[in-house]
Specification:
It is a single chain. The model has no long low-confidence stretch (mean pLDDT 95). The relative contact order is 0.15. This protein is an alpha/beta fold. The protein has a single domain, classed as 3-Layer(aba) Sandwich (Rossmann fold), CATH 3.40.50.720. Strands 3-2-1-4-5-6-7 form a 7-stranded parallel sheet, sandwiched between helices. The radius of gyration is 17 Å and the shape is globular. Helix 1 packs across helix 8, helix 3 runs parallel beside helix 4 and helix 4 packs parallel to helix 5. The chain is built from 8 helices and 7 strands; from the N terminus they run E-H-E-H-E-H-E-H-E-H-E-H-H-H-E.
């Protein structure tokens, strides 16, 4: 029997063209959602729209004004997945202000803006909605060459807690998922060197990295009414890595 948790609900997914975002959009569409896909690549958005017949909007999420305009234009939204993210690998002593600001803009600032505009719309409509921020175990661990990325994910977790506190009082639940390495193009870029990946794999009792579809299932659960009393949680999805 098909699960229809999200029948006719408008769910916005940022970073929807690849990896976790694409897998999430496809899964939610299969459960009845009307997907509003946000991404940077128009061709990839068109490809997704052909696959699941979704709305799509191309925007550079590093541009705060363009992001705010898109977030307002795309309302009303019933549930939100802040998935968009970027990474630039640099040793700490060589981390540039430009790379730090770029990652903070996409990974944190854009999530804040979309959540602000979506929550305002939900409150005005009396909608008891849900928001899921896609974070990372990088918010808990200091991975080499990931200074900017780790900082952004730590910031996103802190933002999630404040949102859960303030918006929860309006009936809007906010949670985060914190995966270890997910086999997306971005992760392949970051963890392609066996000398780097093998020590991490040894820390994971289940012995492997994660598929995007596995994260999508957890996001769907936190979005759904099945998790009605879960609010302000940072959920590690790591195969047990954090216990080592």
């Amino acid at each position: 029997m098909e699960i229809m948790d999200f029948a006719n609900e408008r769910i916005l997914v940022t970073g929807a063209t690849k990896g976790i975002g694409r897998a999430t959009a496809i899964l939610l569409a299969s459960r009845g959602a009307k997907i509003v896909a946000v991404g940077r690549d128009e061709h990839e958005l068109e490809s997704l729209a052909r696959e699941i017949n979704c709305e799509s909007h191309a925007v550079d999420l590093a541009d705060a004004e363009a992001t705010r305009a898109a977030a307002r234009e795309l309302q009303p939204i019933d549930r939100l997945v802040n998935n968009a993210g970027t990474v630039t690998l640099q040793p700490f002593l060589e981390t540039t202000v430009e790379a730090f600001q770029q990652q903070m803009a996409v990974n944190v600032q854009a999530a804040m803006i979309f959540a602000q505009e979506t929550a305002k719309s939900m409150i005005a409509r009396g909608k008891k909605g849900t928001i899921v921020n896609v974070s990372s175990v990088s918010s808990f661990l200091g991975f080499t060459n990931h200074a900017s990325y780790c900082a952004t994910k730590g910031a996103l977790d802190s933002l999630t807690m404040v949102m859960a506190n303030e918006l929860g009082r309006q009936g809007i639940r906010v949670n985060a998922v914190n995966p270890t390495v997910v086999l997306t193009p971005m992760a392949v870029k970051a963890w392609s060197d066996p000398a780097k990946s093998e020590p991490l794999l040894k820390r994971i009792p289940l012995g492997r990295f994660i598929e995007p579809e596995e994260i999508a299932e957890s996001i769907a659960y936190l979005l759904s009414d099945r998790s009605a009393m879960i609010n302000g949680v940072m959920l590690p999805i790591d195969g047990g890595m954090m216990i080592n």
